[in-house]
């Protein structure tokens, strides 16, 4: 057995298959790291220590018998908006939630591939904010700079992967909730096509704006987790055509036409792109041009996409709030959003959904001229812990939009998007990661992944650890 336990998802899979390490050793190390960092990073809401060790022992038995599965014996984490049998799904909320009787479909697929789920990661209340803080669990911190947030709402998963507690994690993205924390923790985060990964037992999540997706340190690891978790079950409202994400990792993307975009969709609130973020995205654009791609500044026509987002998001909050044991324990900002969702959950919601196809045609016109859009993932570097604590609902919304105005339109469209690392706001100290996102049309995950893998080979961002 090797004395050096590998950290990456692909590396762990190869080491397990080659008999160089046991699942028990991997899971024990993961649990030890979680325990050691919980007082500081606070990445996990629930830890399945006993169950994970039992499952690791079973994985070792199967490996010794010659069985091979894509993730057999590998420790992974999932966000606490996803059902794991025997565990509550509190989604960042206070209260005594009952344990779930069954796994959600995405978790079922991970377990069927042999993964050992070591725990459920922290998320802000009902996944609303680009920070992972709350009275139910405290503050989740960024392993690159503990005074700063890892982002949200998949902040716990991002912190866990960035710190090496697990090699990869499953999160979700309703307005950038995967891509924002990936940007602020130096990770790959993929929001796939709507329905690519089932959200069952919900036929769709948050009226179709929320998708499940992977967080990982490399493009290959993210693509593998996406591949394994992909699939639908009877009752899913969105079942996109299959795409091959695995072979895309090693495929030359060819010469692509890339639109460099800094425009944000209309929100009626102030926002400003931090010059350090703009400079980082421009540097990536220059590297892409050096790799042979045509990179031209051009902007999608977003129009009034925000009017389609708000009813779907707030109505989704209202629906989810009905699962909370004691609604009075919810943050006052959440209760305000839930009230808005009741007002917008009828005719306004139906109008918002009917407007989606015209929006796709309008925004998607840019893909008549370009293959991919490159934009910032966020407008600012990571925020300090507590930056939005104590703000009113309206002031929180304004601050959130100012920091993170770039990701959410693609949730309305339902199309693939992925974050790639773009350097650091403080490059000499190697702190405060920044991100850029590749945006594509429907079912474009293979193109985005091929491009990201090519850039990764050039930038080798996975070599830097917090």
UniProtKB/TrEMBL annotation:
Coiled coil: none
Annotated Amidase domain residues: 26-447
InterPro entries with a match to the protein in the record: Amidase, Amidase_CS, Amidase_dom, AS_sf
Keywords for this protein: Hydrolase
A Pfam family matched in the record: Amidase
Domain of life the protein comes from: Bacteria
Enzyme Commission no: 3.5.1.4
Molecular functions (GO terms): amidase activity
Family matches, as PANTHER family: GLUTAMYL-TRNA(GLN) AMIDOTRANSFERASE SUBUNIT A, MITOCHONDRIAL, TRANSAMIDASE
Family indicated by similarity: Belongs to the amidase family.
Protein's name according to its UniProt entry: Amidase
Naturally occurring in which organism (per UniProt): Streptomyces asiaticus subsp. ignotus
